[in-house]
Structures are given as structure tokens and as C-alpha cells.
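Thought: the user wants the 3D structure for the chain below. I'll pass the sequence to the structure tool as-is, report back what it returns, then summarize two notable features.
Action: structure_tool
Action Input:
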Amino acid sequence: MLPDAHKELGALISLDGSLITAVLSMFWADYRDGAKKAKAHCGFDINHGIPAQVHLTDGNGAERPFVDQILTEGQTGVMDRGYQSHELFDLLQEQGKHFVCRIKSKTTRTIVKQHQTDEGSYIFYDALVLLGTPGQNQTQESVRVVGYEISGTKYYVATDRHDLTADQIATIYKLRWSIESFFKWWKEHLKVYHLIARSEYGLMVQILGGLITYLLMAIYCHEEFNEKVSIRRIRQLRTKILNELFNGQDNPEPIEDNNFKEQKIKSRDAKT
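Observation:
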């Protein structure tokens, strides 16, 4: 129903956690003294631009254990440095699950095989390595590490994807930011974090309600406009629904979204 945006890169799932500010009466949502927070652990389907899975814990809930639960065989988890775990990398390879994970630049790397990189390319490193200190936390299985530089910042990315070029590996990690954009949109426009429920079960129901809403909007925007979800299209839909509800009643002029009116006024004032 939704297009597969990056089919050549395989099934990509970006993983991250997002804190939800709770109230003090939510005793289960531990975070720190004087503050209560819950955490949503989300897997975001990059290719289709929609959330795939979500798990809920208290604010101190560790994120790494959910990688194995969110990913299925054949999928590639795209993760930031907080997910770096050499034990996890071994486990995922054993299970036939893939990963593209940024690692700390100072991580010990024992080179097994060095791959050539083009001179002058933003890709400056590509090698098969064992990560970590021998006898302490070193990976049992070798992993591929790709290093590249963007705007003066160097990135080192570990992966088990040997079927792709170094440039494609870098591209996959850049796509990780789609989950950050989703969380921002989710918070600002769906008001999911305006808490109604107080129990862990009730909050999960509220979060799932927000995810379902987002999925329906993604389908609508694609089928009607061949576009990704945007607040502009959602406001148009809301106005259309309101006008249909009032159709046939004593309503001399169509309803116009107040947000559009405010935007038009600001735009007109800016021009004058």
C-alpha cells in the first residue's frame, strides 16, 4: 500500500527511544528523584516511513534489550552510538538479523582485512575487524567498519552488511534520522505526549492510538497526493471533514481551518 523507498538497501528499521514526561502519581514511571518519565522504544520502518513496533518502559529502561525484540530475521537495525554492544553484534549475526550502528571513534579495532577506499572520497575507512579489547569485550565474529566524514565530523559505522558498498552503508546511517523526524512530528502534531492515561496499560493504549492515527494519515497522504505525511494535508482533510459535516445546514460559507487563517494573516503582514 505504501511505496518501498529504499528497496535496494533491504528492510531498514531505525531504532531509538523517546522519553515521555509523566506526572508524579505515575509511580511505575521511575526516572530520578522529583521526576517521572516513561520511555517509548520504537522501531521505525525507514522504507515505508511508518512506525513498526513500540515497547513501553519506565524512563530508566535500557534500550539495547529491545533491539532483538523489534528486529526480525533479514531486517537491518539502524542505530546510534547508544546501542553499541559487541555482545549484541554477535547475537544479531547469529540470529540472521543485520545492523548498521555508529560506534565510538576510540573503539579498539583489530583489522582482519583492509578494503581499499578512493582517494579524495568522503569514505576514508573500510575494513573487516574484530571490535573491542582481546580477552575482555572483543567480538567473536568479525564486523565491517566504514568510516566517513561529513562537514568536519568523522563517523565510524559497524555493520554485518557485506553485500553493499561503503557509500550505501553511509547512506543507511544517514537515513536513521527519519526516526528523529517522526518523534518530533509525533510530539508536536499528534499530541500523544499530552497524557490522558496514568497507568502503564492506559499510556500504552494512548500511544498505540497515536501510532494508528499516524499510519492512517500516511496511507491517506500517499493515496491522495503521493506525498509523505504533512500537517498541511492533515489540516486540509480536517477542514474537508468539517465542511461535509455541516453540508446542508445553514452555513453560508465553508469552514476554514483557523491555522490556515493565521498563516495567511502572517504571510500578508510580512509582504506589507
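Final Answer: Structure generated. Helices lie at 65-70, 86-95, 166-174, 178-189, 200-225, 231-245, 258-271. Strands lie at 12-21, 30-32, 35-45, 50-58, 76-79, 98-103, 109-114, 123-131, 143-150, 153-159.
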